[in-house]
Amino acid sequence: MFSFRGRRFQRTEERDDTPCNEAKRMKPMAIHLVVSMLLLLLSCSKSTDPNDLPRIKLTAENVISKEVWLRVKFININEPREFVLERDGPEGRGKQIATGRTGKADTLVIDTTALPRTVYAYKAIQLEGRARTLESDVVQVQTLDTTSHAVQWQIDTLGVRGEIYDVWAFSRDNIWAVGEIYLRDSTGNQDPVKYNLARWNGQKWSIERVYYGQSLITFRAMYAFGESDVWVGGNTQPMHWNGSQWQKYDVPSTVFSAYIYKIWGTSSSNVIIVGTNGSIARFNGSTWQKMDSGT
């Protein structure tokens, strides 16, 4: 319908409020509401699990009177990252103890500047250039006091001669020692065949021979993750005690061909042996791999 108002020409329409047209007008609103709800549900479903976020885990592995052993591990971070380890203590806050670079594997840092009977707070920080982009939780420790002079030392003599190269104490009543030990035979003379392991049970030492096949080697290193999880090494081959028997390993000479002088690891699926001429090899639980020391 048309109407004239003065000199203006205007067209007006009659509104149709029938149910059909009302539904047509409501349809876009309903679609918009459905889309909004779907977007809300998708955003909720994509919420990040805190366990999936990149983070630094700092743990205290060992604390004695003048040393603190700390392990730095980057979680949910695949590429190597730079980090700095800081310490708060009597000397002030934020003292830099060490810097390093770590990735999937963890890194052990030993603070040898600690004082006896002192409380320290440690924190690991990820660095990107000069920016501090990620921090670990604070780890607080108290170093042990030094031994008093009232302690009485007792000297134990193992055999008639020999050398002890490494010792591991599980407790005061369970101590292992490896090396080269000679005893007297039944006639009172020195037995020409050496022993390579001694174990203390709280009362006495038991001296043993551990053979690598048919060979009796001199053990120079030992590392244990438990009483039934002990690694020893000498010559070029390591051995493992599982609580009931010794297992020998045949590390290829292309991987490791040196005398073993040190063993370290985080578990029996991550064991590292170090020897002469800069030789390093790592055991991943199934195979041995050569590690380049750069020397």
Description:
- The protein is mainly β and 295 residues long.
- The chain has two domains: 53-142, Immunoglobulins (Immunoglobulin-like, Sandwich); 161-291, Methylamine Dehydrogenase, Chain H (7 Propeller), CATH 2.130.10.
- Helix content is 9%, strand content 48%.
- It has one helix spanning 19-45, and strands at residues 2-5, 8-11, 55-63, 68-75, 81-89, 92-102, 107-111, 119-128, 131-135, 139-142, 161-171, 174-182, 195-200, 205-208, 219-226, 229-234, 238-241, 246-248, 260-267, 270-275, 280-283, 288-291.
- Strands 5, 6, 8, 9 and 10 form a five-stranded antiparallel beta sheet that branches. Strands 11-12-13-14 form a four-stranded antiparallel beta sheet, with no helix packed on it.
- A hairpin with a 3-residue loop joins strand 16 (229-234) and strand 17 (238-241).
- The longest helix is centred in the N-terminal third of the chain and has 27 residues, at 19-45.
- The chain is extended, with a radius of gyration of 35 Å.
- The protein starts with a strand and ends with a strand.
CATH superfamily placement of the largest domain: YVTN repeat-like/Quinoprotein amine dehydrogenase
| Count of domains | 2
CATH topology of the largest domain: Methylamine Dehydrogenase, Chain H
CATH architecture of the largest domain: 7 Propeller
Strand tally, please?
Answer: 22
Return the string of H and E elements. EEHEEEEEEEEEEEEEEEEEEEE
Instruction: Please describe the biggest sheet, giving its number of strands, its sense, and whether it closes into a barrel.
Output: 5 strands, antiparallel
Total helical segments: 1
For the record, the CATH class of the largest domain is: Mainly Beta
Distance between the amino and carboxyl termini: 99 Å
- Return the average pLDDT rounded to an integer: 84
Stretches where pLDDT is under 50 for at least 5 consecutive residues are 1-13
| Beta-strand residue fraction | over 45%
Helix content: under 10%
> Which structural class do the helices and strands define?
mainly beta
Note the overall shape. Answer: extended
Question: What does the radius of gyration come to?
Answer: 35 Å
